[in-house]
Amino acid sequence: MNRIVALGFLLLAGCAGTTPPTMVHQPMTARPVVQNAQAGNGAIFQAGGMRPLFEDRRARMVGDTITINLVENSNAAKKSSSSADRTSSMNASVPTVSGLPGKTFQGMSLSASDAMKFAGDGASAANNTFTGTITVTVIEALPNGNLLVSGEKKLAINEGGDEFIRFSGVVNPATITTANTVQSVQVADARLEYKQNGYIDSAQVMGWLSRFFLSALPF
Predict the structure, then answer these.
(1) b/e for 135-172, b at 16 or more Cβ within 10 A?
(2) Tens digits of per-residue pLDDT, 175-216?
(3) How far apart are CA 154 and CA 196, in angstroms?
(4) What average pLDDT does the chain have?
């Protein structure tokens, strides 16, 4: 029994330290590709990592790094309402007529009414702001010159767990500044994540058994 309990604690500890899944482009980083040497290496000139003397240092090859300025700010609001109202009534009476059977029902009056009313109102709003910086790596140079970048920043917060900031997307080299930076709003197909693991994050997640009953029960 003690072994089973110990094994359970080990499994929980392992789960607490796992990296949360991601949706950003993979891989997270890439090493520079060795270029074919066109000339012999010298004391200063190295063909494998050659860049022109007067070329700026903006990223353009696999393995280069770019600093992304995160300036995400989105606002959305929606409001809707609807109403319906219907009322109907009906009156009927049986006149007194002599010589007819069923004299018990003569002189009786009938009435019926129906009323229906419906009103619905709904509203939703969202406001998201994300600022900061993250340096990513060029993982692919596309044929048209655009750069596919991806990167991750990991922060350890005492014993509360780890925080992960991840970013990926397609960068147009024309938007890269001379300081080798680009605004996140200028990145196409951008994917930005902010996640964490640890007991604080686990406390905010519904247990698997509760999720099962929530999806299975019809009421």
Answers:
(1) ebbbbebeeeebbbbbbbeeeeeeeebbbbbbbbbbbe
(2) 999 889 999 999 999 999 888 776 655 666 667 667 666 676
(3) 9
(4) 75
Burial of 59 (0-12, 13-18, 19+ CB in 10 A): buried
Residues whose CB is less than 8 angstroms from the CB of residue 131 and which lie 6 or more positions away in sequence, other chains included: 70, 71, 72
Instruction: Supply 17's token pair.
Output: 């330290």
Whole-angstrom CA distances from 73 to 156, 166, 184, 194 are 26, 17, 11, 15
Q: Indicate the Cα dihedral angle 207, 211, 217, 219, nearest 10°.
A: 90
| pLDDT score recorded for residue 186 | 93
